[in-house]
Write a structure and sequence with these properties.
- By secondary structure, the chain is mainly alpha-helical.
- Helix content is 65%, strand content 11%.
- The chain contains six helices and three strands.
- Strands 1-3-2 form a three-stranded antiparallel beta sheet.
- It is elongated, with a radius of gyration of 19 Å.
């Protein structure tokens, strides 16, 4: 599993939105939302490359960066890790926590019900 810090995740999100991109393009996008120095962002790109989360190709004097893992694959591995670490691998306590705190919207509840129905249908097939 690729471990990515919260700051590095912001870099990944820029690349998931559009890739490949040059370091300057990535820096430009991140500096719109964060007060980060160019050197900091380039250091994160290097770390992500070392972690095999990002790949690059050289084009002339520039490097074009692309994500090496899809956003969906990252979300799956990160969510499994999160549930495992905090809830011993059980999803029910996580959902119960949000329900007890009143943090589930009507839409969330409807989507959860639909998901449960879909899962139940699969078990009966």
């Amino acid at each position: 599993m690729v471990e990515v810090s919260n700051a590095e995740l912001r870099v990944m999100q820029v690349l998931w939105q559009q890739s490949p991109q040059t370091a300057q393009e990535i820096v430009g996008q991140l500096q719109q939302d964060f007060d980060w120095h160019e050197k900091t962002i380039k250091t994160m790109l290097n770390r992500l490359t070392q972690k095999s989360a990002v790949t690059y190709t050289q084009q002339g004097r520039s490097y074009l960066y692309s994500p090496a893992i899809s956003e969906k694959a990252y979300q799956e591995q990160a969510s499994k890790s999160f549930v495992q670490r905090l809830f011993s691998g059980k999803v029910t306590p996580l959902v119960a926590h949000f329900a007890e705190k009143g943090e589930l919207s009507d839409k969330d509840i409807s989507e959860l019900k639909a998901l449960i129905e879909k899962l139940e249908d699969r078990q009966h097939d």
